[in-house]
Write a structure and sequence with these properties.
Length: 678
């Protein structure tokens, strides 16, 4: 048998992995999509301990229970390790391992990011929308592939089990990993542990002096609450009332630009004073975006943000208001129904539904942008996502949903505003829509039909009625109708920017005419090169006018970001799209420039571009939405010439509850370019 140490020496399997990478693989729980333990300071200490262990195995440092000594300051060539090695090399005094673990703990997020990126790059892990991780298919524990891929999984799962359940002699790496996992107190979450195994774990953890020192230092740091946070954190600056009142962008509803202005003045973290309410801490920078994406799941929760909506619908919880393993389970169950592949299989229906609606438009007609495009998109999405036609109810349904959001999330209206006679009538209409969705999705009626989102929710309910009870179905099924608002408004934003840039309008029209030159395009026709201009127009419209420019979260574990401490219970406003108007991320941010998204610029790569949110609650259907919006733009420009009813120097906006083009923006059907032919 190839032992762990032999593999290291020969360059096989796990030898390609660093100790931080091995530790992440050991801690990964596929059901949760993240680490088995509740991460935080514990994980920070363990990851730094793993990095120190790797440096010791590489001969760069030596450590015992009393001191940690630098042996060789030569860079390892690994971005995951070298920043830690450089910091150790700058210290003139000798300290023990615990000192270095606590001093270096703030760098653990970088270590985790580098380790995860490396595991994904080498196809050991798969990353899913929202930043969830699972073992790559050929790496799943229990499978028996051959070669190096097998070794990479074997030496971080089965090898650890052999170390603690048999008398096999462990090597130094095994001792360090065993000690770190034991210090994190997660063995009992991974295996059935009895007293004999506990004794074996303690024995293994003490077998190597370096491993013993690192594990002891991690354990001591974890148990020292007074040292869990730096003592010298900066006071969070508070925005002055004047800067709020005279912020033109906020007044006119351009929230990303408004928060970018405040970030320029106050930095990436600042407080907004809210009369008669707790101040809100705003995150509005590139590094805070990266932190929210990577670490938000550890420190933040969404319950308080969405509980008002849950109450309005009488549900105990929803996918939006839960986090962790349950949220991941929801997303996995809906992934296929919201996928781009599901949309491309139904292109014929998309064309038929869109043309049927456009056939009712007359040349010369002028319509407010929301009244024109929300029903246009709903004519497609309700049949595609829920197999029903809701055109007769869509206006009332969206008005009710907007009221719910304004009461439950934005909290700009009192709760009794949901009980007015008109809202009661609209709520009843929503109940009837949800009832229709369920009645049209019996097994007999769905034979031979494409699975839609309602099918996915009902399948989850049927498989586990306790996880998703019937009483909690009204909100997710009703929320399907919101797709018409979000996608319709984004089509409106993109059309506005096209009409403000006639040369781009002509290029999009040319792409559309080429696609429909020989009949309806198929799935393969929507290759990136054939829709290149239209797709980049959408990307720039999403940058300048994102539908959901921010989100609210509650701090559930005290954390420090950019030197600022966020206490438990603090309300965070993550203005992830403020960076859309940052010169650092997007030079000349007020210019509508689709060349940002082509090589060599590629300005959208990185966390500065976040139109679909960040982290675990990012938009599950973003790839569906991207293609569907592009198809709508192409069909609109192919069949019609559309104009602005009058010129606008600045795009009129409705900022809440989501960012929308105001109905003051009116579009005119100037010309029908091609026969619709329904």
């Amino acid at each position: 048998m190839v032992t762990h140490d032999t593999a290291v020496e020969t360059g096989q399997g796990a030898s390609a992995l660093s100790l931080p990478e091995e530790l992440l693989l050991v801690l990964l729980d596929e059901e949760r999509g993240y680490f088995r333990q509740v991460p935080g300071w514990n994980l920070n200490c363990a990851m730094v301990g793993a990095a120190l262990g790797e440096l010791s195995l590489l001969g760069r440092i030596d450590t015992d229970l009393e001191s940690l000594t630098l042996l060789d300051a030569t860079a390892t060539g690994r971005p995951l390790l070298d920043p830690i090695l450089r910091e150790i090399a700058t210290e003139t005094e000798t300290h023990d391992a615990r000192y270095w673990i606590e001093r270096l703990a703030p760098q653990s997020e970088s270590v985790i990011s580098q380790a995860l990126d490396g595991l994904v790059r080498r196809q050991i892990l798969d990353v899913h929308p929202g930043g969830f991780y699972t073992f790559a298919r050929r790496q799943r524990p229990g499978e028996t592939p051959s070669g190096e891929d097998h070794l990479a999984a074997e030496f971080v799962t089965a090898q650890l089990a052999r170390v603690i359940f048999t008398d096999e002699l462990p090597g130094p790496r095994d001792v360090i990993i065993t000690g770190l996992v034991n210090a994190c107190h997660v063995f009992h979450l991974m295996y059935q542990i009895d007293e004999e195994v506990e004794e074996r774990i303690r024995f293994v953890s003490q077998m190597d002096l370096i491993g013993q020192a690192i594990a002891a230092a991690v354990s001591q740091s974890i148990l020292a609450p007074a040292l869990r946070r730096p003592s010298l954190t900066k006071p969070i600056p508070t925005v002055s009332l004047r800067d709020l009142v005279f912020n033109r962008e906020l007044r006119e509803g351009r929230l990303p630009a408004g928060f970018a202005y405040l970030a320029d003045r106050y930095g990436p973290v600042f407080e907004l004073p809210i009369p008669f309410r707790q101040n809100v801490i705003v995150l509005a920078g590139l590094k805070t975006n990266e932190w929210a994406h990577r670490m938000g799941r550890v420190f933040l929760r969404s319950k308080e943000y969405f509980e008002g909506v849950d109450k309005a619908y009488g549900v105990s919880r929803s996918m939006h208001s839960i986090d962790g393993a349950d949220h991941f389970r929801f997303r996995k169950s809906l992934h296929t129904a919201y996928s781009r592949r599901t949309l491309t299989r139904r292109l014929d229906e998309v064309y038929e539904l869109a043309r049927a609606h456009m056939a009712g438009w007359d040349v010369g007609t002028t319509m407010p942008v929301q009244e024109m495009l929300r029903p246009f998109v709903n004519a497609q999405t309700s049949p595609l996502l829920a197999n029903i036609d809701t055109q007769a109810e869509i206006v009332d349904a969206l008005e009710y949903k907007v009221r719910v959001l304004n009461v439950g999330i934005v909290k700009m209206m009192p709760r009794f505003m949901l009980k007015t006679p008109s809202m009661r009538r609209r709520a009843k209409a929503m109940d009837q829509i949800v009832d229709r969705m369920q009645r049209t999705h019996t097994a007999a009626q769905r034979v031979g039909m494409h699975e839609d989102v309602v099918d996915a929710y009902l399948a989850l309910h049927a498989s586990d009625p306790q996880f998703l009870p019937e009483s909690d179905l009204s909100l997710p099924l009703g929320a399907i109708l919101m797709t018409a608002m979000y996608m319709g408004d984004q089509v409106g934003f993109a059309l506005y920017w096209l009409l403000q840039n006639p040369e781009l309008y002509e290029r999009v029209t040319a792409e559309a005419d080429a696609l429909w030159a020989e009949g309806d395009p198929g799935e393969d026709d929507f290759s990136r090169d054939r829709i290149d201009v239209t797709h980049r127009v959408l990307m720039e419209a999403l940058r300048m006018s994102p539908i959901v420019p921010m989100s609210m979260r509650t701090v559930m574990n005290t954390c420090v970001v950019e030197g600022y401490e966020f206490p438990v219970g603090a309300q965070l406003l993550i203005a992830q799209t403020a960076t859309h108007y940052s010169e650092e991320a997007f030079p000349d941010p007020w210019k509508f420039d689709i060349d940002r998204y082509a090589p060599p610029r590629n300005e959208h790569l990185g966390r500065g571009y976040a139109p679909y949110g960040l982290g675990t609650h990012s938009c599950l259907g973003s790839r569906w939405a991207d293609l569907h919006i592009v198809i709508n733009l192409l069909m609109l420009t192919h069949y019609f010439k559309i104009e602005l009813a009058r010129p606008y120097k600045r795009l009129p906006m409705d900022p809440l509850p989501s960012q929308s083009p105001s109905n003051r923006l009116k579009l005119r059907i100037a010309e029908q370019r091609h026969e619709i032919g329904v």
